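Notebook B, p. 112. Complex prediction, attempt 2.
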Amino acid sequence: MRVLQLLSSMGTGEATDYDALSLSRVLRDMGFQTAIYAEEWDRQMSDGAVLPMHKLPRPAADDVIIYHKAADSCLSVPLEQFSCRKLMIFHGVTPPRYFQKYSQQRTVRAKQSMQELCRLADKVDYCMADTSSQESLLRELNYRCPIVIRPLMIPFSEYAKPLAVEDASGYAGSDVLLLSAGKLLPNRRYEDVIRTFYCYQRYCNPDARLLIVGNCDGLEPYEQRLKRYAAALELEERIVFAPKQPLSKMLACYRAADLFLSMSEQEDFSLPLVEAMYFGVPIAARSAGAVPDTLAGCGLLLPTKDPLEAALAVHRVLQEPGLKREVIAGQRKRQQQLAFSEIRRLFEQQFRDFLDFVPVNGKKKLLHFAAGSKP
Amino acid sequence: MENQTTPKINVAEIMESIRAEIQEMGYSSDMLSFADIRSDAEAEMEMEQFDADMLRHDVQYLTANHRLEPYPKLSGNPVSVFFKKIARKLTRFDMEPCAAEQSSFNASVAQAQQQIELYIQESRLHSTRVLLERIEILELQQKNAHIAMAQMQAQIQALQQQLFSGEEPS
C-alpha cells in the first residue's frame, strides 16, 4: 500500500509545505511507502523530496491519496478519476472577491479552487481540517464524510537553530518594533495593520516601527497600493516592507519584534501566529476567520477592527508587564499543545481511523463513525 | 487539540477601559482612508459581471473627489515653498481655468454616474416588482391546481369504490 500526497504547489515556505513534509516523515515511520507529487515546486528542494505531478503512478485500489487543499490551489488531475481511497487535508480557501480588484488571474484561480472544493464534496472519503471553522465550511458545502480536526504539523526544531551575526543585526533596535508577517493578500487587511500602526505611532509611541514581511505573490498592485497608503500617511520611514525572508532571517525578525500584529479578516490556520508563539512574541490579532481557533484563547484577541482601539490595546500589552507576561504564558501553553509530537500522535490515530473507516473494498463503516462525526 | 488555553485575560474589560480612555483623551482615528488610494490594477481589470458595491464605491469616490484643487498645501523647506509659490503665481492664468474646467467635467461625470446608478436601482426595483407579481400569479395557479387535483382524486376514489362494489357508475 502506497500513500501519495498531492499538492498544487510546494517549496514556497508555506505552512502546507511543512505539513506535507512532516506527514511524509511520519508516514514513512509508520511503515508506509510514500511520496509527494506537486504541480509546481521549488527546484532547489532536496532531491527526491517532491516529484512532478506527471510522474504520479496510477494508484492501486489499496493505495491512499492525500490531497492538500489550500488557498487557491487546484489540481490538474481530477481526483475523482482515481478509484483508490482519498483523504483530503483542508487548509482553507480564500474567497475570490478579495482578488477582484488586483488580479484577474488570481480571481479566476480562486474561483476554480472554490469550484473544485464544491465538486469534491462527495468524491473524498475522509477529511482532515486544520481548524473547526474549516470543518464548518466543509459541512456547509455538504461534505458528508467524516471530518476530523488536526492542526498543522510544524517542525519547531527548525526554529531552534542559532542565528548568524549578520541575520541577527538586521532589525534589532531600541525602538518598539511591531511585526506583521504572511503573504500580502488583501484578505489579511494589511491596510488595517497600517491604520493601527498610524494610531499607535500618533498617540502611543512616535518612535515605533512596523515591519511587514511577506511576498505579494502575483498581487503587486495590492503591495503598491499599501506602500502608497503608507507614504500618504507619512509613515514610509517607519514602515518597512520586506519580501519573504529565508528562515534564518525570519527568525531574526521574530526575535527582534516586540509584538505580532494581525488584522486579518479571513485567515486559515496561521503559521506566523504559531511562530510568534514559539518565539515568545506577544500577539494582538483581530478575532476573525480561523484566528480564534489557532490562538485557542491565548494572545490578545481583538474584538474590533477599529484602528484606534487596536492601537491602544497593543500599547497596553507593551506597557503593562503583567499583561504581557500573561499573554506570553498563554501562548507558550498553546504552542505546547501544537508541539510536533502531539500533532504527530493525533495524525497517527486519525490516519489509522481513516484506514479502518475506508477499507480497501470501498465499503465504508458508517456506524463506526456515527458517534464521532457530525453529519 | 482545539482545547482552549485557560483565558485569564479579560479582553472585554480591557477594551472597555480603552474606549473610556479614547473618550476621555479625545483621541480620534481620523485619517486618510485606504479607499482613497486607488489600485493601479483597477482600471485594467475586465469585469465579468455587474458589481453594485463597486459602482457605489466609485460613485462615492467621484462625488467626493470631483473638485480639483489647483493649489494644494505646499510642503518642504521655506526656500522651496517660496519658489513654488512664485511658480504658482506665474502659471496661475493657465492653471485656474484648467482646474475649473476639469472640475466641471468631473462633476458632470459624477452626476452621470449617479444617474446611471439610480437608473439601475429603479430598473432592478421594477423587475423585482414584476417578478413578485408573476410569483403571486403562479402561486395562485398552483393553489388552484392543487385544489383541482384533490377534487379529481376524490372523484377517482369514489369511482374506484363504486367499481369494486360492483355498482354501475352513475
